[in-house]
């Protein structure tokens, strides 16, 4: 079974930065795609970013392009989301997810495995 554990959330001011981590275990991940999603209270879970583990190809939602960067550390089986120039509208619980597919990566329904989430709060 694949297990994902997020960490790195917290409270920051507008314009600040955070780096989220997603530690993966249980399988070899070279054939996986990893995604980051976020969900604010009363809103749907929406796509933030994704990466194919093996070749490092990356994808971003328009709302975070130029501000967020997804990356991986193969030696630690960890995926990161570097978040810069944070805005209050970035406030949400952030989830990492994994799937053995490279299609439909912007949809939560495409993913088979999910972490528990980590809270990001950006104050104005």
Task: Summarize the structure in words.
0% of the residues lie in helices and 50% in strands. It has strands spanning 3-7, 10-13, 18-25, 33-39, 46-52, 58-60, 68-73, 78-83, 92-99, 113-114, 118-123. Strands 2, 4, 5, 6, 9, 10 and 11 form a seven-stranded mixed sheet that branches. It is built from no helices and eleven strands. With 124 residues, the protein is an all-beta fold.
State the major sheet.
7 strands, mixed
Alpha-carbon distance between the two ends: 40 Å
What fraction of residues sit in β-strands? Answer: over 45%
Uncertain regions spanning at least 5 consecutive residues: none
Shape: globular
Q: What is the number of strand segments?
A: 11
Rg, rounded, reads: 13 Å
Give the helix tally. 0
User: What number is the mean pLDDT?
Assistant: 94
Structural class: mainly beta
Order of helices and strands: EEEEEEEEEEE
What structural keywords apply?
124 residues; mainly beta; 7-stranded mixed beta sheet; 4-stranded antiparallel beta sheet; 11 strands; 50% strand
In short:
The chain is mainly beta. The chain has strands spanning 3-7, 10-13, 18-25, 33-39, 46-52, 58-60, 68-73, 78-83, 92-99, 113-114, 118-123.
């Amino acid at each position: 079974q694949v297990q994902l554990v997020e960490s790195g959330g917290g409270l920051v001011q507008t314009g600040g930065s955070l780096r989220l981590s997603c530690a993966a275990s249980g399988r070899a991940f070279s054939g996986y795609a990893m995604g980051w999603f976020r969900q604010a209270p009363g809103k749907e879970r929406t796509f933030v970013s994704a990466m194919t583990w093996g070749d490092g190809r990356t994808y971003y939602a328009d709302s975070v392009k130029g501000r967020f960067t997804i990356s991986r550390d193969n030696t630690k089986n960890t995926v990161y989301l570097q978040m810069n120039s944070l805005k209050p509208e970035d406030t949400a619980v952030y989830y990492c997810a994994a799937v053995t597919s490279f299609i439909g990566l912007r949809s939560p329904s495409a993913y088979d495995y999910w972490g528990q989430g980590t809270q990001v709060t950006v104050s104005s």
